[in-house]
């Protein structure tokens, strides 16, 4: 993160970003930053089609799924024109992996504690039952 202190951040609203999904002007959002990829479309090693599909919206998940190299990330910085307005950040669809993590962490809480606890109780009761029978 090397932001020059003397350059105030330019904020764009989601409404404004959504207009830039044409070949004349192609913007995408990555990690709440706004990228103007108009000039990069033809040079993108992954093809222009994938960028066009995401134009005017949040491409963070797809960008991360590809596992872009450090070089690609360095290059991407040169296209930053500003940031998504903080008021509009909550309007972006939540990345689906957050949901998976939540579900996973819930299920691991369940299986880590509740199931072993019940199993222990049942085994304990059975043991007492057999001991009492003798
Ligand atoms: C500022 C934005 C971006 C830059 C600078 C960039 C740059 C690059 C570069 C340099 C590569 C070559 C491989 C590498 O070095 O990792 C690449 C590959 C690729 N990129 Fe991007 N990219 C950007 C955004 C995106 C987005 C938003 C998507 C998806 C929607 C995407 C999808 C792909 C795909 C599918 C490949 C091909 C991967 C492969 O063939 O293994 N890129 N990109």
Automatic annotation (TrEMBL):
It is found in: Endoplasmic reticulum membrane; Microsome membrane. Keywords: Electron transport, Endoplasmic reticulum, Heme, Iron, Membrane, Metal-binding, Microsome, Transmembrane, Transmembrane helix, Transport. The keyword Protein biosynthesis does not apply. InterPro entries: Cyt_B5-like_heme/steroid-bd (IPR001199), Cyt_B5-like_heme/steroid_sf (IPR036400), Cyt_B5_heme-BS (IPR018506), Cytochrome_b5 (IPR050668). It is a single-pass membrane protein. The chain crosses the membrane at residues 113-131. The keyword Zinc does not apply. It comes from the Eukaryota. GO terms for cellular component: endoplasmic reticulum membrane. One of its GO terms (molecular function) is heme binding. Residues 9-85 form the Cytochrome b5 heme-binding domain. Belongs to the cytochrome b5 family. PANTHER family: CYTOCHROME B5. This is Cytochrome b5. It comes from Dipodomys ordii. The gene is LOC105993009.
């Amino acid at each position: 993160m090397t932001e020059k202190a003397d350059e105030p951040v330019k904020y764009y609203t989601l409404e404004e970003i959504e207009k830039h999904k044409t070949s004349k002007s192609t913007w995408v959002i990555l990690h709440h930053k706004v990228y103007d990829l108009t000039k990069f479309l033809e040079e993108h090693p992954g093809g222009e089609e994938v960028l066009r599909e995401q134009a005017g919206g949040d491409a963070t998940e797809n960008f991360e799924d590809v596992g872009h190299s450090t070089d690609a990330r360095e290059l991407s910085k040169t296209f930053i024109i500003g940031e998504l307005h903080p008021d509009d950040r909550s309007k972006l669809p939540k990345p689906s992996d957050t949901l998976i993590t939540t579900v996973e962490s819930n299920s691991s809480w369940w299986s880590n504690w509740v199931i072993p606890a019940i199993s222990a109780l049942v085994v304990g009761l059975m043991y007492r039952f057999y001991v009492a029978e003798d």
